[in-house]
Each structure stands twice: as C-alpha cells, then as structure tokens.
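Data deposition worksheet. Section B asks for the primary sequence of the deposited chain exactly as it was used as input, without tags or linkers unless they were present during the calculation. Section C holds the resulting structure in token form. Section D is free text for depositor observations; keep each observation to a single sentence. Incomplete worksheets are returned to the depositor.
Section A, Depositor: J.P.
Section B:
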Amino acid sequence: MLAEETNVQKANKAILHIVVEAINKGNNEKACSFTHPECTLDGKPFGREGDLIRTKMMHTAWPDQTWTWDALIAEGEWVAARFTCKGTFSGPMGEIPPNGKEIVFTGVSVYRFQEGQIVELWEYYDKLDLYQQMGVIPAMG
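Section C:
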C-alpha cells in the first residue's frame, strides 16, 4: 500500500508545476527562483545561475517550447518527474545552428528539495535522439 503524500511532498510537486508554467511562459527568472544557489546537477556544481543560463539558452533555441509533466512521484524529499518537451528549433543553441524542425524529447528528472528549494537534480534523457533531431548527428538507418 502506498503511503499518503505529506504536505511537504505536495508542496514540492506544486513547485515543479510553478516551474514548468513559468518556463512555458518564458519567465526564466521565476522558473529558476526555486533552484538553490548551490544546487548540483548530476553531481556537479550548477546553482541558480547555471540553471538560469541553461534556461535562457533553451528559450533562445526553442522560443515556443512547451514542457509537460507526464508523471510526478514524491518520496521523502525527492520528486521524480517524467517529462516531455516540444518546440521548434528556430534559434541557435550555443554553437548549434537551428534547423527549423519541431523537436520532441522525453526524459526523467529527479529532484531533491530542502526548505522549498531544489538542492540536487539528476537528469536522464536520450541525448542521441535529441542531437539527431537538432541535426548535429545524422539519423541512423
């Protein structure tokens, strides 16, 4: 039997809904305001500034991007999130030129919260598929 979610777990999931809503509206500062200044990404220093840089870069590449949570599962101070991102690759992403194609990718992010802030983040998605859609790596077959 599954344990009932605590108020903290519900609040952490609600934060992730606020983050996605802010990203979808292009409000990068609000989206990143829940990232702790010393947050790690995949075990490496990232912080709020790193999150803001990445979020702005993604909005440049996919200005019409739409993120959705396909599932959110909370356990203790952790929330696992399965996501889908869609958008037109119409701006550069770093050194990668846009190809004007719709990009769709899915993955899983695992967040650890402390006092309403994301302090640790782990991300898993198919980078090969994403790079193929972006035209960086030719499609196989």
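Section D:
Residues 7-133 form a domain with the Nuclear Transport Factor 2; Chain: A, fold (CATH 3.10.450.50).
The chain has four helices and six strands.
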